[in-house]
Automatic annotation (TrEMBL):
Enzyme Commission number(s) from the entry: 4.1.2.48
Organismal lineage: Bacteria, Pseudomonadati, Pseudomonadota, Alphaproteobacteria, Hyphomicrobiales
Protein's recorded name: L-threonine aldolase
InterPro entries, per the entry: ArAA_b-elim_lyase/Thr_aldolase, Low_specificity_L-TA_bact, PyrdxlP-dep_Trfase, PyrdxlP-dep_Trfase_major, PyrdxlP-dep_Trfase_small
Protein family per UniProt: Belongs to the threonine aldolase family.
Gene Ontology annotations of biological process type: L-threonine catabolic process
Length: 350
């Protein structure tokens, strides 16, 4: 019953096998091998446009360096107040990009368009003391398990465009959002005005595979230097390519995300039907937020369930009582129906 994070899951066997296979023999280093080149071409096929792809080790590195590529001196970036770049990356995006992260409010982890406009207005281009608006970063799927629909993405990127700002998407759970929407990778990104994407593979079955994807390769000119200076240029880059080869083959990445989302659906249905627990809010990806009595949370933990108690967002604070916990349950490609059903049974027993 591992619901703490999709990072707790291992690697999918097909990905591990491919990594082992590529571990034999020799190939040129630093992203120049045949395998590296072929995976870069695969990304262009998947996104239906010529893209430039740069591997990094972690999602934090992907976000930080993607934002660094959009940055200008004195720039500020706008992100949802609960965004990973603000809450969970220890200032790495600020450090690498040299920009301040400015919070934008909005319910359920999504930036509200009016709040974004109001925040942008606070940072005009001549604001030498406060900083000038530079870019917007949105998380898809969001940290609260919700997913921006295509028109919501378009609305935010249009505001960015009207103000001359670049747009970054944190896609640590890109595949989960994509299958939730039933959209194509192109529709959810550059066709809706996204300039650069952090494409996450690690949470969805890879061992360690994160890529920064530029939809206009001309905008990636500085990236080789930004990445090397940040010590993120892999010499044995082909091992990341090997993982992504298996990940992208036969749409494995989409199948794994569909499975994870399906397990979350099962949890959501069970929680909605439960008389001891309830959903804190509706989510569309592989994260589920539930409100359960503290005693039940303790019982579930004692019986081996792993999950995190979650900080209560302001917009739902009034709905949660003192003797209740808000918990986050994350499913992954490795979650089983037995795990979900056992967890739901424990809640019922309580
Ligand atoms: C929304 C989001 N972005 C990025 C990351 C990447 O984090 P890490 O640097 O731990 O790979 C995570 C991981 O938890 C995440 O949830």
């Amino acid at each position: 019953m591992f619901f703490a994070s999709d990072n707790w899951a291992g690697a999918h066997p097909l990905i591990s096998e491919r990594l082992t296979k590529e571990a034999a023999g020799f190939a040129s280093a630093y992203g120049t091998s045949e395998l590296d080149r072929s995976i870069e071409a695969r990304f262009s096929d998947i996104f239906e446009t010529d893209v430039a792809v740069f591997y990094v080790a972690t999602g934090t590195a992907a976000n930080s360096l993607a934002l660094a590529s959009l940055a200008r001196p004195g720039g500020v970036t706008f992100a949802h107040s609960e965004a990973h770049v603000i809450e969970d990356e220890l200032g790495a995006p600020d450090f690498f990009s040299g920009m301040r992260m400015i919070e934008v409010a909005g319910p359920l982890g999504k930036m509200d368009a009016e709040s974004l406009k109001a925040q942008i207005a606070r940072f005009p281009q001549d604001a030498v003391h406060h900083g000038r608006a530079n870019s917007v970063t949105l998380t898809q799927a969001t940290e609260q398990g919700t997913v921006y629909d295509l028109s919501e993405i378009q609305t935010l990127t249009q505001i960015a465009r009207e103000n001359g700002l670049g747009v970054h998407m944190d896609g640590a759970r890109f595949a989960n959002a994509l299958v939730a929407l039933g959209a194509t990778p192109a529709e959810m990104t550059w066709k809706r005005g996204v300039d650069v994407l952090s494409f996450g593979g690690t949470k969805n079955g890879c061992w360690c595979a994160e890529a920064i994807v530029f939809f206009d390769p001309a905008k990636a000119r500085e990236m080789p230097f930004i990445r090397k200076r940040a010590a993120q240029l892999f010499s044995k880059s082909r091992f990341i390519s090997a993982q992504l080869a298996a990940y992208l083959d036969n749409d494995l990445w989409l199948d794994l995300a569909r499975h994870a989302n399906g397990m979350a659906d099962r949890l959501r249905d069970g929680l909605a039907a439960s008389n001891t627990a309830r959903l804190a809010w509706g989510t569309q990806s592989n994260e589920v937020f539930a409100v359960i009595p503290r005693a039940t949370a303790k019982l579930a933990e004692d019986m081996g369930a792993k999950f995190y108690e979650w900080p209560t967002p302001k917009d739902v604070a009034e709905t949660i009582q003192k003797d209740e916990s808000l918990i986050r349950l994350v499913t992954s490609f490795a979650t089983t129906t037995e795990d979900v059903d056992r967890f739901l049974d424990i809640l019922q027993q309580a």
